[in-house]
Amino acid sequence: MRNPITCDLQRLAVVIPAAGQGQRMGQLKQLLPWQYTTVLGQTLLNCRAAGLHQLFVITGNATVAVAAEARRYGATPVYNAAYQTGEILSSIQAGIQALPTTVAAVLVLLADQPMIGPALLQQVVVYWRGRTNALCVPTYQQKWGHPVLIGRDYFAELRALPQTARARTLLKTHPQALQTVAMQSPTILADLDTPADYQRWHPTNPNA
């Protein structure tokens, strides 16, 4: 397998939706403690450890605090004005809109997925190989997870989706182009929606 670090990673960006209000968690989950940092901080550290440095954090709720945490790890905060009425797709669209024209593809990784470590990120990146027509999703037991990789050729179509849609709509529209990467870890399916999720996956939990 080709080492993704040898790819031109300057042309690959990561969009991290972090605009949510944390209603099911009951508090701002992006800034909850995680090891020596926060949930968002660990997510960004994992990206950097995977060789990914063009990081865009999409803010909305508590934008000042979330943007400050993003900048702490060298990420660029992007405000999603539609965060209260739009679904997560609106944050992805805001991120796509903010990308430099030199970006050939984007990884979409949720802010509350610090469990997805550098090795898992690299397994998806390796299927990119600098192509603008890449479309890739990791799977665990045939279920789709994150991060999703989307090439620039699909950016316009993604931006044109109604905000009530889901990013998966794009993937389902191009089944012949879509590559799936079978993973051995269920973490690609998990995020931290509720206090129970947080307790389950927190590193201090021996079962995480």
Topology overview:
Layout: E1 12-17, E2 33-34, E3 37-38, H1 39-49, E4 54-59, H2 63-72, E5 76-79, H3 88-98, E6 105-108, H4 118-125, E7 135-140, E8 143-144, E9 148-151, H5 155-160, H6 168-173, E10 179-182, H7 195-201
Parallel strand pairs: 1-4, 1-6, 4-5, 7-10
Antiparallel strand pairs: 2-3, 6-9, 7-8, 7-9
The outline comes out as globular
- Integer-rounded radius of gyration: 16 Å
Structure classification = alpha/beta
Arithmetic mean pLDDT: 90
Number of domains: 1
- The CATH topology annotation reads as Spore Coat Polysaccharide Biosynthesis Protein SpsA, Chain A
Distance between the termini: 28 Å
Low-confidence runs (pLDDT<50, min 5 residues)? Answer: 1-6
Look at the structure and name the CATH superfamily.
Spore Coat Polysaccharide Biosynthesis Protein SpsA, Chain A
The total of helices stands at 7
